[in-house]
């Protein structure tokens, strides 16, 4: 008998049988099911299976948390059920049949930015380090920075800008590449399109906004301004999708024996033309409007209210998948405002969820089986990955989730009320402080302490009240 034989049989039964499974795949810790009828899945019984550490539905997929042995469990499940395995990407595509239009848009955004996150995180850390050695007066009684007294650190500061510029100024190249990869079109064309948006021969759009006169391509009967869209998100997204859709359309219509020549030519040139006449200017205006509205909301008299609502509701946004929208907003704020005041609140939400789990570890310190789930969940949460904590522990008991939301909201008010700005999207959780601009690190550290103490304390209070309530029920 195989290791998970009984658990696999139970999961197959409780999920509605083979006929209810449209697709199944797995990721690092979770089984991902696309179900023909999600209502047939008995969630309570599924979560009662010994190997199952929780479940949730996201992006049209019913996801069952197994843990580090998910690959073994998955292989046994597919062998037992006879369900044909599919890739994670195919499962995502199948799962979209259960999503609304808005959810599909958000799902697409998440898939675009996911491959870019490692570079953006590195870029944020580099900018933070440059600020520390270049802007903070650490030496000579607080009058000089490291780069002012050391040629070595001056050289490091100058050199690191090469990487920071490559990541953020040329971000449109990564976006257009990611879209072409996601859509299954020619990736090098996506890269070329991105380069045409940031080419050095183009005048930076920020310079144009500042009053500089852009050169033009003169076609005799008309002229097109030579404006670049460095660090811009929305122009790149619009252009990337137009290129991908145009290429896919041409593939269906152009004979195969000439497609290698005709399709790239007829897809790339019109898209680049549209990018510099319509999509770029339109995307710039949309991006500027979004960033201005968000920034105004966070810095207005009622910024504390905006912060409280966002900090309190960010964790529920993760459950629905709507949190993927924040990546685009963060990047737009960075390009427009020189930093983002949204990302610090996300890092604080991560910390708050981890702190609620820490309280559950304390409350269940004698439960060895519970600790096998909660300890790894708390660690991953403090490092910015909240799903194991939320779905494996906090949502299971509910009150830790609420305690974390309250703590996150209070910490967010402190962060926004103090004007905390991050250089960029960075590592979440406790390491998030490395992304914060140096002058705000002190107050952000206080907000982090709040995000630890309040959820921890409230979780214990809620647990005791719940136990008291149960005792009163029994006595009556």
TrEMBL record:
Localization (cell): Cell membrane
Topology of the protein relative to the lipid bilayer: Multi-pass membrane protein
Catalytic machinery residues: 27
InterPro entries, sorted: Glu_permease_IIB, PTrfase_EIIB_Cys, PTS_EIIC, PTS_EIIC_1, PTS_IIB_1, PTS_IIBC_treh, PTS_Sugar-Specific_Components
A Gene Ontology molecular function term of the record: transferase activity
Keywords linked to the UniProt accession: Cell membrane, Kinase, Membrane, Phosphotransferase system, Sugar transport, Transferase, Transmembrane, Transmembrane helix, Transport
Catalytic activity, EC: 2.7.1.201
SUPFAM superfamilies: Glucose permease domain IIB
Catalytic EC class: transferase
Domain PTS EIIC type-1: 107-476
Bilayer-crossing regions: 112-133, 159-179, 188-207, 227-244, 256-282, 302-322, 402-422, 442-463
Domain PTS EIIB type-1: 5-87
Residue stretches in coiled coil: none
Pfam families in alphabetical order: PTS_EIIB (PF00367), PTS_EIIC (PF02378)
PANTHER family (UniProt xref): PHOSPHOTRANSFERASE SYSTEM TRANSPORT PROTEIN (PTHR30175), PTS SYSTEM TREHALOSE-SPECIFIC EIIBC COMPONENT (PTHR30175:SF4)
Name of the protein: PTS system trehalose-specific EIIBC component
Lineage of source species: Bacteria, Bacillati, Bacillota, Clostridia, Peptostreptococcales
Gene: treP
């Amino acid at each position: 008998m195989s290791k998970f034989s009984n658990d696999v049989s139970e999961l197959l039964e409780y999920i509605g049988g083979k006929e209810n499974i449209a697709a199944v795949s797995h990721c690092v810790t979770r089984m991902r099911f696309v179900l023909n009828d999600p209502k047939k899945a008995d969630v309570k019984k599924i979560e009662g299976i010994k190997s199952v550490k929780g479940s949730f539905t996201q992006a049209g997929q019913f996801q069952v948390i197994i843990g580090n042995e998910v690959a073994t469990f998955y292989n046994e499940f597919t062998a037992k059920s006879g369900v044909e395995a599919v890739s994670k990407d195919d499962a995502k595509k199948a799962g979209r049949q259960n999503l609304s239009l808005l959810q599909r848009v958000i799902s697409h955004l998440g898939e675009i930015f996911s491959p870019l996150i490692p570079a953006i995180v590195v870029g944020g850390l580099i900018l933070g380090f440059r600020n520390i050695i270049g802007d903070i007066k650490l030496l000579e009684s607080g009058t000089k920075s490291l780069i002012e007294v050391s040629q070595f650190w001056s050289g490091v500061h100058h050199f690191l800008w090469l990487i920071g510029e490559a990541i953020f100024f040329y971000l449109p190249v990564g976006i257009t590449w990611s879209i072409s990869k996601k859509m299954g079109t020619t990736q090098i064309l996506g890269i070329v399109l991105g380069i045409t948006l940031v080419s050095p021969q183009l005048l930076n759009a920020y310079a144009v906004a500042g009053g500089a006169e852009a050169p033009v391509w003169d076609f005799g009967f008309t002229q097109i301004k030579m404006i670049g869209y460095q660090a811009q998100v929305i122009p790149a997204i619009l252009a990337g999708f137009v290129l991908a859709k145009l290429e896919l359309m041409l593939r269906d219509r152009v004979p195969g024996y000439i497609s290698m020549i005709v399709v790239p030519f007829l897809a790339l040139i019109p898209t680049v033309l549209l990018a510099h006449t319509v999509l770029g200017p339109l995307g710039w205006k949309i991006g500027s409007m979004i960033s201005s509205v968000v920034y105004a909301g966070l810095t207005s008299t009622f910024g504390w209210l905006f912060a409280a609502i966002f900090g309190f509701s960010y964790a529920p946004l993760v459950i629905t998948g709507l949190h993927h929208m924040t990546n685009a907003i963060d990047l737009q704020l960075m390009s427009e405002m020189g930093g983002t005041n949204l990302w610090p609140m996300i890092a604080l939400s991560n910390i708050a969820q981890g702190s609620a789990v820490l309280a559950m570890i304390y409350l269940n310190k004698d439960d060895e089986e519970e600790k096998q789930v909660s300890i790894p969940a708390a660690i991953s949460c403090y490092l910015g990955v909240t799903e194991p904590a939320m779905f494996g522990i906090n949502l299971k008991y509910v009150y830790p989730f609420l305690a974390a939301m309250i703590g996150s909201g209070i910490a967010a008010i402190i962060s926004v009320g103090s004007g905390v700005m991050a250089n960029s999207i960075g590592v979440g959780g406790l390491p998030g402080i490395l992304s914060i601009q140096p002058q705000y690190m002190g107050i952000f550290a206080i907000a982090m302490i709040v995000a630890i103490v309040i959820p921890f304390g409230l979780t214990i209070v809620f647990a005791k009240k719940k136990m008291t309530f149960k005792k009163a029920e029994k006595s009556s």
